[in-house]
Amino acid sequence: MPTASERIPAAVRPLVSERARKTLDLVEKFVNEECLPADPVYHAQLGTGATRWTYPPIMTELKTKARSLGLWNQFLAGHEHGGAGFTNLEYGLMCEQLGRSRTASEATNNAAPDTGNMELLAKYGSEAQKKRWLGPLLEGEIRSCYVMTEPDTASSDATNVQLSIKREGNEYVLNGQKWWISGAGDPRCKVYIVLGKTDPNHADKYKQQSIIIVPSDSPGIEVKRMLSVYGYDDAPHGHAHLIFRNVRVPAENIVLGEGRGFEVMQGRMGPGRIHHAMRSIGAAEEALRWLLTRANAPHKQPFGKQLSEQGVILQWMAKSRIEIDAARLIVLNAAAAIDAGNAKTALVEIAQAKILVPNMALDVIDRAVQTHGAEGICQDTPLAYMWAQVRTVRIADGPDEAHLEQLGKKENKKAAEARDLIQRQVEKTDALFKKYGTKELGPCPRL
Amino acid sequence: MPTASERIPAAVRPLVSERARKTLDLVEKFVNEECLPADPVYHAQLGTGATRWTYPPIMTELKTKARSLGLWNQFLAGHEHGGAGFTNLEYGLMCEQLGRSRTASEATNNAAPDTGNMELLAKYGSEAQKKRWLGPLLEGEIRSCYVMTEPDTASSDATNVQLSIKREGNEYVLNGQKWWISGAGDPRCKVYIVLGKTDPNHADKYKQQSIIIVPSDSPGIEVKRMLSVYGYDDAPHGHAHLIFRNVRVPAENIVLGEGRGFEVMQGRMGPGRIHHAMRSIGAAEEALRWLLTRANAPHKQPFGKQLSEQGVILQWMAKSRIEIDAARLIVLNAAAAIDAGNAKTALVEIAQAKILVPNMALDVIDRAVQTHGAEGICQDTPLAYMWAQVRTVRIADGPDEAHLEQLGKKENKKAAEARDLIQRQVEKTDALFKKYGTKELGPCPRL
Amino acid sequence: MPTASERIPAAVRPLVSERARKTLDLVEKFVNEECLPADPVYHAQLGTGATRWTYPPIMTELKTKARSLGLWNQFLAGHEHGGAGFTNLEYGLMCEQLGRSRTASEATNNAAPDTGNMELLAKYGSEAQKKRWLGPLLEGEIRSCYVMTEPDTASSDATNVQLSIKREGNEYVLNGQKWWISGAGDPRCKVYIVLGKTDPNHADKYKQQSIIIVPSDSPGIEVKRMLSVYGYDDAPHGHAHLIFRNVRVPAENIVLGEGRGFEVMQGRMGPGRIHHAMRSIGAAEEALRWLLTRANAPHKQPFGKQLSEQGVILQWMAKSRIEIDAARLIVLNAAAAIDAGNAKTALVEIAQAKILVPNMALDVIDRAVQTHGAEGICQDTPLAYMWAQVRTVRIADGPDEAHLEQLGKKENKKAAEARDLIQRQVEKTDALFKKYGTKELGPCPRL
Amino acid sequence: MPTASERIPAAVRPLVSERARKTLDLVEKFVNEECLPADPVYHAQLGTGATRWTYPPIMTELKTKARSLGLWNQFLAGHEHGGAGFTNLEYGLMCEQLGRSRTASEATNNAAPDTGNMELLAKYGSEAQKKRWLGPLLEGEIRSCYVMTEPDTASSDATNVQLSIKREGNEYVLNGQKWWISGAGDPRCKVYIVLGKTDPNHADKYKQQSIIIVPSDSPGIEVKRMLSVYGYDDAPHGHAHLIFRNVRVPAENIVLGEGRGFEVMQGRMGPGRIHHAMRSIGAAEEALRWLLTRANAPHKQPFGKQLSEQGVILQWMAKSRIEIDAARLIVLNAAAAIDAGNAKTALVEIAQAKILVPNMALDVIDRAVQTHGAEGICQDTPLAYMWAQVRTVRIADGPDEAHLEQLGKKENKKAAEARDLIQRQVEKTDALFKKYGTKELGPCPRL
């Protein structure tokens, strides 16, 4: 089989450096030989009882191996802090490989939400904040949460956020609820990046919010319960419903300054969506690999026929191939657009990737599930869990429908020019009709 | 509005030369300012009666303008014969612009089936054949047909072709039927490139066929009738059902040699599919432009609301934007794959484009039709005709289903490697379970 | 093959009388043995030239036969005027048979728009109006148009209609434009039922409109042009774009009274939609029959395999069967709802049929087209024309999207009750938790 | 809100007796007022630890209430053994109500797989078998499993089953593996109905199988593990992977006789599929109810707009309404077909229901999930669990694709008649052409 670097789509091959190709192949090899085999062991080490919310020993082994191979923090695109200097497109290709395994992103310290939090701290953090939190995160010693979503508001619109952050003397006091705080189940999670309101009555609704750093062991934080995703608890990472009751943190924990939460939050987005999308593409590729394997399993020939001899299954393979490849090009094009400009100039391309990829991946994974029959919906393949993971992407960071509406409005802005163009053409057409003395086609002869 | 060259997707921008960008913008301008306004006049000049199968005068004007602008024969990628030397990707981008208009491809001498026929003659023709037929075709003085499909066989599988080509002395004698001979209605169509069987009993079923050049005015050719496409006769081009009765042509009209028809036919394919696909993308873009215009038409506000204020219509805009852009990347990637290798090494990419594009374009055009209501299904917009044209692409050159099955079989060839990979991972997983002494998750506690 | 009456779905069989079953089988036999064979002759008798907008002689033969068999005006459900007294469900089953052929509805005098116009005249017409127009229509001596849609407004919302109907002495004077006036091409079309505004400034926007009867040969009516539907002109019926310039009609031609146009218009709808939907179901069944035939055609075996041996084609057959049968039940259920109440109490059921059926039929017909390949898109099967006909149904009488939005709003009205129900259940759940002392599931053990 | 009996579709209303309507409304009331409120308590009483695979006390309360209301064993259609004598259609309507709640089917002793097993015992069991097992099952004292599926074969094709049932003296000895043995986790599950091979070499491959009754506490049965469904363990019911090692049962436990397993198995199917499908329809209705509630939740207005004001959400409501109603009619029609004949004469109708319903329900439920956002995928609504449950239906009892292929083959059997009909029509058409002297439409005038 050609390696990952040999399979880079022809259209973008010129954009990938020799160094990135080598790293890409190394990532693929690491995922194939270390991470995918470790996934079931990781799952089993969690167990169902007392050990479920702990740190599975095999992760330590994987992290050590990854680091020794130089596969560490590739996400830090072109940053200082030991950033690897890969372009978004190059790192995106690596994310596809990481996305095939449950353990690979964490093993190489490229796992969300740490990556976004590290970027945030690197970009907006004070020196003290960097020293205390960014350093250990870059070393993979601790983990973090991004604490934004709230249960009782439509918080996909961040202006609705209600958690109160009140200045009292040299401290800020936090009160409110948050949920879907992913990673809060991990015993190594030491820090929360929290979005709340410092000035809920500010005339400019984009200046009411602030972002503040909260140690996860601060008194007053209660984990009300853990949320499941289609029956999966995602241990030990987990998704917490948190209650903040008079949680006090030093004033210097505010990021960038009071009232700048919205600005910081927006700076955090962008490339992350690309990388998340590429992970979903990796999941889809992995699902297709399972589909191929099952469709040719010698002991599974219902009514005497191999599934891969059936036209319908062959169509699933073909459609999956087309859909995965089209989605990958959409994401890589968005990455190229960021690399050629920035996340703001690439908004349309990023939105396309955000919308298209999870819907595509869900279709491909579901075909793999269906091909496996009962085996596909249980714990015997990674497929059912993969599907549940990808299903969240259609909701996280704003539902499809919100992004479609925004993208539609952007497209609609071209309407005036489209109308003008058609109008000018109509006028020219009229002139041509006159010039040639051509008659418009009339009614039926009888009339 | 940014020009066509400014809208080239970020991912492939590095692959387009400065010269190609300039030509691309010139093509766009020509299509916008000359061809689209001329389309309704072209249609009207055909009329409904005696003039329907003639050469509309406005085409002469367009061809003269195109040639004076240097927009001529761009399809001749890197060939001698005055070829412009554009890559497939570069010419593909131009095809997208040409595909927005009914007249643009012919006006610039880039129209099918002439382009494929010219490539065939340039590649396989004898000097005499080139002189007599290729020259006038390159000059746009005459037009041609590609005569392959037959009514009574499943001739998408070319080995089924039955038209008989029999050697008699210094001549070949043709007998049989052909249909869907596109372009046969045009009075300027002077030559047929005909596929038939010279040796129907040859043991190798790929050596039974030959391709032969037949002047369109040869005695014995009867146009039995013209075929319609969803009610459109496609005049003056048209699609003919032909009968060959003892049609005699000189022996030197055979192309490349007896029994080499299959080989010649296969050489003719490839890039043409890319260019055709790009034209359909142009059609989809044009349809979206119409959709935008109608959704904002001030006099069309059912129940007091502009269509563009409705969420469903905004979703149509957004989805159309995503689907068009994804399909374009798939085609450009196929073009890049041909440019980096050849049509054979890019088979998978070409098949993806062949399958994906018309299905996408039909969806987009149908949304534009639906947005227009009754206006969309009649002659008042280019949409209904456009839809019918693109609908043929799902059938021409083999139906979707045949291409999907082939592509599925190609994907299925990866099954062995997929299985081996999973198998090796399972073994490694077992080893890890042992190493760590981890237990697989067991049954429920009760049991 | 079981007859039409034997194929009535089990669920509704008890609703069909013995008499209706017999008539239904007679209709099927008439369509099979007379109408379907006559369709291509009808088409050919129209020709392409001077005879195109005339009355094909074979229609006279069909009408005579139909009448002699007692197959005439079955649509007149339970009315006086010689109405056959069938229920909507019974007549609906007959419409399915009629819808399989291009000629059958007219041959049995059950063709739109005459049926709706006859119902309108029977229900709202004065005795004089009935005598002059309803009589000859019931006899099939003349035909009629329903003149409502306008080119320059969003007239799917009838309050937007702008054609002016002004009283002057003992006459009304009409000025304005109308289009999509179906049937206006037929030389036997003698009367127009016209919707316009008599009082455009009336405070109640539903009282501004009136309906008036206009002889088709009234001076001042110009047929500006005929509109095509995907390339089809639908001759000799046709769809006209009409201009009314000071068209004068006697005051007694007003229907029911000035300002009652909206009321009359609404009374005209309802059952007609059911019958139209059943005709589309007949078209889908006929398309499936063609699909089955082609998939087993002995001379069409691409790559050596009968299409009906391919899993994908078998799935098309199965899905088509399911989708047709589900859509038929939806329509029959709407008919049963009208029969059990009236068109107003069955609004939801009628809307369901209006939306579901054409979308289903387009899918089925398109599968049949694709199965036929090039043969499917031209004049050699009824499929392409059928598709174009059904495509109009997604637009006529309001686009899908308008009906979906209305239906959505109706469903949404149940929200309050749904919320209350869920709310009461939540309260009961809380009580049960207390009663049992059960604890809600808490956080992960670590926390 | 109208009651369940008032909402019976008009088309089938005449088929539902007064008695059934009353019971139906009682079932709805019981589900609304008792079961739906009990569902979260049932879930919580299971806990996450030692109590997970036990019998939640609230079920006892529900069963007592159900029985006191006379809501017990309604499934026993027209049988002796205290059967309620409802038709399949009538009981189907009740199943829809039961399917809205997690607890309702068991609370009324209408839960799978017991219902099918009770029918099997009632139909094929010996008197002793009935006394020992059927009695307690009818009383709801014990539960049962249906043990058919195997992990290492394509056992959707029952001829592939491999578990060995060997006669040894007065006993049978069972060896082999089974999985997806639903209900095996329940402590009250006392009996397994097992399909295996008594004569694996029998020439008739439908006579190799036997069905035998095995007490669940028989020595030699190991629960290897419990299978999860998208992360759900379905406790306390559960899905077991069982190993049979020399499990011995008395010879009289064989059902109907050796070699008659296939026959018994086929007799078990049929109506069960209808009732299962109706439960999924109930789930879809419940999901739509949640969707309506959320779309109008006052505290959830992203970007200042209620979801129910958005066109896309309104379309979801409308489409869901149409799709649910169409699917319900398909199932009720199948039930009516069984009631009018039997499960064999209604094979096509049953297959339609089997295929259509889960696909429809998954779409509707997924729309409800998406409308809820993050709330929809976790434990805070019944939606995610409901989705996972319904997802299994596309696989259980044979995957969609197998049923589609079978249904396609049945439809394809009509091809010969379709061809004959078309052929006869072509001949008649030819005769008509001659009779009228009509010419077929020829080529373009030029030619």
TrEMBL record, chains A, B, C, D:
GO terms for MF: acyl-CoA dehydrogenase activity; flavin adenine dinucleotide binding
Alphabetized Gene3D superfamilies for the sequence: Acyl-CoA dehydrogenase/oxidase, N-terminal domain (1.10.540.10), Butyryl-CoA Dehydrogenase, subunit A, domain 2 (2.40.110.10), Butyryl-CoA Dehydrogenase, subunit A, domain 3 (1.20.140.10)
InterPro entries xrefs: Acyl-CoA_dehydrogenase, Acyl-CoA_Oxase/DH_mid-dom, Acyl-CoA_Oxase/DH_mid-dom_sf, AcylCo_DH-like_C, AcylCo_DH/oxidase_C, AcylCoA_DH/ox_N, AcylCoA_DH/ox_N_sf, AcylCoA_DH/oxidase_NM_dom_sf
Keyword Iron recorded: no
One example of a Gene Ontology biological process annotation: fatty acid beta-oxidation using acyl-CoA dehydrogenase
Occurrences of domain Acyl-CoA oxidase/dehydrogenase middle (ranges): 145-246
Gene Ontology CC: cytoplasm
Acyl-CoA dehydrogenase/oxidase N-terminal domain: residues covered: 18-141
Tree of life domain: Eukaryota
Keyword list, A-Z: FAD, Flavoprotein, Oxidoreductase
Cofactor(s) needed: FAD
Domain Acyl-CoA dehydrogenase/oxidase C-terminal: 259-409
Pfam families listed in its UniProt record: Acyl-CoA_dh_1 (PF00441), Acyl-CoA_dh_M (PF02770), Acyl-CoA_dh_N (PF02771)
Oligomer and partners: Homodimer.
Protein family: Belongs to the acyl-CoA dehydrogenase family.
Protein name: Acyl-CoA dehydrogenase NM domain-like protein
